[in-house]
Amino acid sequence: MSTTEQRRTAARGADPLPTRPAAARLLGVRRTFGPVVAVDGIDLDIPMGSVLGLLGPNGSGKTTLMRMLLGLVRPSDGTVELLGRSVPDRAAEVLPHVGAMIGGPAFHPHLTGRANLLRVAASEPLLDTPRVPGAVETTLRRVGLADAADRRFRDYSLGMQQRLGLAVPLLVRRRLVVLDEPTNGLDPAGTRDVRRLVAEMNAAGATVVVSSHLLGEIEATCSHVAVLQAGRLVAMGGLRTLLDAAGGALEVTTPDVEHAVRTLQGAGIDAEAGSGRVQVAPGPPPPAVVSMLVHAGVAVHEVTRPAARLEELFARLTGAGPA
């Protein structure tokens, strides 16, 4: 039996992967390289079925964290679980269900795109040999390389190389996909294609972890975000929840502006009068503000809080612009 066949048999014969709320879990994870602390005591649960955007300035530990998730780097301290299995010790049991592109695509420069992808597909534990050619052709079409499949990899543009790298996790249905800067080198059309592919993988049941310098794309694509700064996790949660919490002043629309301002200031809440509305400084929860005003006899017509944009939140958490 060949090595590939052995891997396929092992993948099919392993214990069923447990269904858990977290697709991946890091507990107290720390990783050092000599005197350099790349990841420093991170606790992180990646919700099953989410699209998690991993953000942080250059050198914040994003790629190191992704490599530890995949068992490519062993933590100096702490534990990593991937699909309910300890990594790297039991990584072989789950890696067939995981697709990844870390650190840019690596292919044979003298082979065509099709030939490179055929070589990769032939080693896929979950892909039977008779299905390999069809899977390759379907995937080349999905990533927009069908017309360039017979060109050598060395003649591909950076964007085309990136597309071929994205083809690898698409060869079979995955439970988890990890993508490090998947839009690197892509034009706007290619960036939209990545957004579409991430959505398709997620709709098919995959949890997706993606890092990107394009905060607008993360905001448009992801359900959750985790922000790293100097190797530490500084924020994690649902994207909309984080943006709402980081929003500006609460705006209360009321015909009783002066009465509302007096009521709130009397309770020690910073409030300013506007035209037909009151601005309430961040702090008190909206339900508490509304309850206080209503009990004071103020007619409340509408309460809104403009959500922050991801770029604003990122800058606030890291003290940096997009990186």
Automatic annotation (TrEMBL):
InterPro entries: AAA+_ATPase, ABC_transporter-like_ATP-bd, P-loop_NTPase. Keywords: ATP-binding, Nucleotide-binding, Transport. GO terms for molecular function: ATP binding; ATP hydrolysis activity. Signal peptide: none annotated. Residues 24-255 form the ABC transporter domain. The keyword Nucleotide-binding applies. PROSITE patterns: ABC_TRANSPORTER_2 (PS50893). SUPFAM superfamilies: P-loop containing nucleoside triphosphate hydrolases. Belongs to the ABC transporter superfamily. PANTHER family: ABC TRANSPORTER, ATP-BINDING PROTEIN (PTHR43335). This is ABC-2 type transport system ATP-binding protein. It comes from Pseudonocardia endophytica.
